[in-house]
Each structure stands twice: as C-alpha cells, then as structure tokens.
Design brief:
With 394 residues, this protein is α/β, with parallel strands linked by helices. The chain has 3 domains: 107 residues, no CATH class; 56 residues, Alpha-Beta Plaits (2-Layer Sandwich), CATH 3.30.70; 199 residues, Vaccinia Virus protein VP39 (Rossmann fold, 3-Layer(aba) Sandwich). Helix content is 37%, strand content 15%. The chain is built from 16 helices and 12 strands. Strands 5, 6, 7, 8, 9, 10, 11 and 12 form an 8-stranded mixed sheet that branches. Strands 2-3-1-4 form a 4-stranded antiparallel sheet. The radius of gyration is 23 Å and the shape is globular. It starts with a helix and ends with a strand.
Length: 394
C-alpha cells in the first residue's frame, strides 16, 4: 500500500473509533481480521497512526472541535514533521485533499488536556502526563515453573530486564508476538503490568489458604495468587460475567496452577481465609494501555460503578471468615473509588479493621506508602495506577 492509502485506511478506522462505543483494541483487531490483504508492515503503519491519534485526542480536540479523523491525522502528520498534502492527495485509495477549514496549524497543547472534564482535579496532573505515553511490556515470571534470572537469560535477545519493584517482573524493550515465545507457551511467564503484580503479591495469600478471587476476570491475578501459594490450598475464581473466565482453565493448566477452581455461581462461595476483590472501576490508572478508555467513560457511568463497588464489598465481606482478609484492589486513580470507598465500608462494618500495608510494600518493593493503603502512581512508579487496601475481620 502507498502511504496515502494507509492514511486513508487510518481515517476509516478512526471514524469508528471516534464513536468511543467499543474498546479500541477490539475495533482495531476486527478491522484487520476482516482485511487480511493488508500486510504486516502496512498494518503497523496504520496502527501506529491510529494509536498515536487516540493518545492525542484531547489535545487535538483543543485545536479543532469537533475533531474529525481527517483533521486529527493531518495534525498528527504535522506534529511528526510530515506534510499532509503528500498523504491527502485525492488519488486512488487516497483521502481527498484537505479543505481550507481542515488545514489547521499544529500548536502544542499541554498533555493535561488528555483528561475528560468530569475528572479534572481528581487525577493528578503528573499522572495524566505520565499516561500519555505507551505502556511498558511487562511479564510476570511464574515461580511455579521458573526463576526470574533464568527467564532474563532466556529473553535477553528481547532486551529483558528486571522490573524495578516487583520481585517477579520482567520488562521487555521491544514489542514481540508472545504467542511464539516458548517461555509463554510453556507457562513460565504471563503478561501482567508490574503494578498489577505488586498489588496481587501484597494480598499475602498463603499455601494453606482458601481464597476467593471475587472478580477474577481473565484470571491474571488468580494466577499470581496461585504462584504465591505454591499451587497449594484452593483458589475459587468467579466473575459476574462468566464469559471472562473462559480461558482461565487452559491458562491455569499451562501455568501448573493446579489449585484454581473456576466457579459459575457465587452461591458456591462459602467461608474463606482471603477474599480478593479486584473491583470493577473506571480504569483511570490504565490510560497508557487504553487511551480511548478516558473518552468512553462518563460521569454517570462512574457513579454507577461506585455503587457496584460498594455492593460487591458488602457481599464479598460476608464470605470472609473471622480473622480472614478482605483485599480490595482497583486500577483507578480516583479517590472516590479507593480511599473513600474503604472509608464508607468501614463506617458500616465495625467487624473489619484496616491493616497497614506500608511495611509489606516496603519489604516487597522498597517503595514507601503515604498511609495504611497502597497507591501506585504512573508518574512515580512507572506502573499502571493501582490502589490496594487490606481489611481483616475481627
């Protein structure tokens, strides 16, 4: 494909993405699956342009409102030192030339524009800036099957290095097809952000425990818990949307995580030593990975999510046995979903105490916590944004 045809394809793709109805990675993957004729190099060009524009949607919207895919791509080309006239040619398979109204000068806009109005003042400016770049490719070493030093040697050709905080994390400096890696195929590594690794490890799951992963989703933290427990004890993995659990049995077998039991109904969950709630949230801590998510979420949805979080905490807490732990996690940077949610829960549950996680965090990562709970900040730790709180039933 010529470059002008590739820009036309990017504009076509962005037309659907700018509706902000579906997760962008789903839309992009479906677009390319239905167009097998587009070669790998052309796909990379188109995808790079699309993701770059999504990461700049807020800034470009400050220059042109409403922002169209054509204007956004023209601004991106100008920002990267390329003349849009060379791409908007009007030739076969190419986009039409820009109109006078579309040919807007590029002006640098502060990165803090990459935040919807309803969250302004609730997300730290430094974190907003930190999340405008691409996320790192982090892997978690499955200690049931491998040692981190061995994995680092095995993946040295991909620039593998130890993550700065997680004791089981590996970071790669190049994008690769993980499905082709023997370390991944054989269950020695799993894809997991360093921040996600840290909060799961802080749960303190022990080999003798009965554990419930209340919102298990695809099972990333479930697998981390299993490695922490040496695949002993029992982990019940369950999710309100059971479809999200469909790949977990195969992932568990590959990882050697023999203590994971996938459930289809919360009625099977009884008393547990540890109930981990990786709560549904607005996902503001993951904007590096899902730049479109900041524009898909609304204030009304945020309000509904906080109500769901409170409901889940109430229901999950009833399954924690005396002396057991309720461990609450979000990938949000909004205090209303984190500290405020825990404060509200404790106000209505005098049979739970908040446990100070600062010593555990220090021992695990050498990071310092500002209070009893843990908040991982993209601008300070280079991870996704996570919150964790540990509550023990009296």
């Amino acid at each position: 494909m010529r470059d002008d045809a590739k820009i036309n394809a990017a504009a076509e793709l962005l037309t659907e993405l700018f509706a902000f109805k579906q997760p962008a990675d789903n839309v992009v993957n479906l677009y390319f699956r239905s167009r097998r004729y587009i070669g790998s190099k052309d796909r990379r060009f188109i995808a790079d342009a699309v993701w770059a524009v999504l990461r700049r949607f807020g800034r470009y919207s400050e220059l042109s409102r409403p922002l169209t895919p054509r204007v956004a791509l023209a601004l991106y080309l100008k920002e990267t030192g390329r003349d849009p006239a060379l791409f908007f040619t009007g030739g076969q398979y190419a986009p039409l030339p820009l109109t006078k109204d579309e040919d807007i000068p590029f002006v640098a806009v502060p990165e803090t524009a990459e935040c919807p109005d309803w969250l302004r003042g609730r997300i730290d400016d430094d974190d907003i800036r930190a999340m405008t770049g691409e996320a790192t490719l982090d892997l978690r070493v499955n200690t049931l099957k491998a040692d981190r030093d061995d994995v680092l040697r095995e993946l040295a050709e991909y620039g593998a290095r130890a993550t700065p905080y997680s004791p089981v994390g590996v970071r790669l400096n190049k994008r690769i097809s993980l499905a082709t890696l023997p370390a991944y195929q054989e269950g020695r590594v799993e894809v997991q952000d360093e921040g996600s690794q840290i909060v799961a490890l802080l749960s303190g799951a022990k080999p003798s425990d009965t554990v419930v992963d209340w919102c298990a989703g695809a099972g990333g933290k479930t697998l981390t818990l299993s490695s922490l427990m040496n695949a002993r004890g029992t982990i019940y993995a369950i999710d309100a949307d059971v479809r999200r659990l469909k790949d977990l049995p195969d992932r568990a077998r590959r990882a050697g995580a023999a203590n994971i039991v996938v459930l289809s109904d919360y009625a099977f969950v009884k008393s547990a030593d540890l109930v981990l709630v990786d709560a549904p949230c607005t996902g503001t801590g993951t904007w590096r990975r899902a730049p479109d998510a900041r524009w898909r979420m609304t204030a009304e949805q945020g309000t509904r999510i906080r109500a769901v979080q409170a409901d889940i905490l109430n229901k999950a807490s009833a399954r924690v046995k005396k002396g057991g732990t309720l461990f609450y996690i979000t990938c949000s940077l909004d205090r209303r979903e984190n500290e405020d949610q825990i404060d509200a829960f404790l106000a209505g549950h005098d049979d739970f105490d908040l446990v100070d996680l600062s010593a555990d965090l220090k021992r695990l990562t050498n990071l310092s916590a500002e209070g009893k709970t843990v908040r991982l900040s993209p601008s300070k730790t280079g991870t996704d944004g996570f919150f964790a709180a540990k509550l023990v039933r009296c």
